[in-house]
Amino acid sequence: MPQKYSNFVAKFKIMGSNSSYRAMCDAVEQAKAGTIFIPDDFVMYGTPDAVRSGLTRLCRNNKLYRFAKGIYYVPMYDKWDGTLREPSLDAIAQKIAQRDNARIIPTGAYALNKLGLSTQVPANIIYITDGSARQIKFGEGKSITFRHSNDLSNFAYQSKLIQLAILAMREIGEKLITEEQTVKIKNMITQHVSEQDFNHDIVLAPTWVRMILQR
């Protein structure tokens, strides 16, 4: 009797695992290339063990690729040479923030890069967040750092562009920002930010930034 019961339990677990895998596989196949998945995305498909097993099988069958511990992505290939392309660190950071229900804002060199003020794509990206502070390291010297900020005004902007522009200007500094950079930022704001959002957000900026953007 114990042996029969043990065999039944084992068979039940295998059936459950297969059912979880099929549901996970369907979800992955319906996702766009480059979509990032984490284990939490599959909690409705089975037990933690079944999800871990399913992720292993998905990777083994090349349905998913493992970027780092707990981070997977649907393979995406370069349209010119067919090489596998990994998701960007920013996409991974956004996924982590979504999971943690936190807000994040890029700072430093990456803020400059996103605005087109620098061609440098840093391997270590720093965000300020209203969530938990942490650093996540990846292979080849890459990392994402979340620095907690108690300054809620950082997250009060209505325009993401103005939010990014102000952080970029603060990164450059009042004494070092060039006329060329100033003109580029002001042109972007003029083209993409409504007057209502500008009037709301400009009062959140440091005085020297406000004077530059309003003149």
Write the layout of secondary structure elements.
Blueprint: H1 2-30, E1 36-37, H2 48-60, E2 65-68, E3 71-73, E4 76-77, E5 84-85, H3 89-100, E6 104-106, H4 108-114, E7 124-129, E8 134-137, E9 143-148, H5 160-172, H6 179-192, H7 195-202, H8 207-214
Helix pairs in contact: 1-2, 4-5
Structural write-up:
The chain is α+β, with helices and mostly antiparallel strands and 215 residues long. Helices cover 48% and strands 15% of the residues. The protein has helices at residues 2-30, 48-60, 89-100, 108-114, 160-172, 179-192, 195-202, 207-214; strands spanning 36-37, 65-68, 71-73, 76-77, 84-85, 104-106, 124-129, 134-137, 143-148. The strands form three sheets. The protein has a four-stranded mixed beta sheet with strand order 6-7-9-8. A three-stranded antiparallel beta sheet has the order 1-3-2, covered by helices on one side. β4 (76-77) and β5 (84-85) form a beta hairpin. α1 (2-30) crosses α2 (48-60). The protein is elongated, with a radius of gyration of 23 Å. The termini are far apart. Mean pLDDT is 89; it is low at 3-15.
Order of strands in the sheet with most strands: 6-7-9-8
Question: What percentage of the residues does DSSP assign to strands (E)?
Answer: 5-15%
Largest sheet: 4 strands, mixed
- Gyration radius, to the nearest Å? 23 Å
User: How many strand units?
Assistant: 9
Distance between the termini: 86 Å
Shape: elongated
The topology string of helices and strands comes to HEHEEEEHEHEEEHHHH
Class computed from helices, strands and strand pairing: alpha+beta
Helical residues, percent: 40-55%
Poorly predicted spans: 3-15
In DSSP terms, counting alpha (H) and pi (I) runs of 4 or more, how many helices?
Answer: 8
What does the average pLDDT come to?
A: 89
